[in-house]
Amino acid sequence: MNVVENPITDIGHLIPQKFPFVMVDTLVSFSKSDITSLFTIKKDNLFFLNDELSEPGLIESMAQTVALHTGYEFFLRGEEAPTGYIGSIKKIEIVKLPKVGEVISTHVNILQEFLGITLVEIKVVNENKEVIASGQMKTVIANNG
Question: Which residue positions in the chain have pLDDT lower than 50?
């Protein structure tokens, strides 16, 4: 079930990251088992290098889409977005780096979620619907207690 009727562009309260470290800018779709985000590549991006978003920037964008899923879940429950970390990265393949001005779409499929640990499969596509990156990642919610 998709609970997002229109894309949400005001996402600052849904993720713990703040400018200049924000690598997602729009929540497109959300369900308990998946999420899709958009990110427009800009020159002032922290990970911008040689007219492209660098590999670490692309991986961080993938991770922040996972954080957006968690943050939106917490928002729906009336709670503040938690801080999390990348626990592990597995099978990441970067085929092409996005250039300035491009909008990338990141789709995350939640494979498993238990006690604040989330295992996901991620696919990033460019405006031409080409898969430019994919992989698996495990994220962990920080223990705030």
Answer: 1, 145
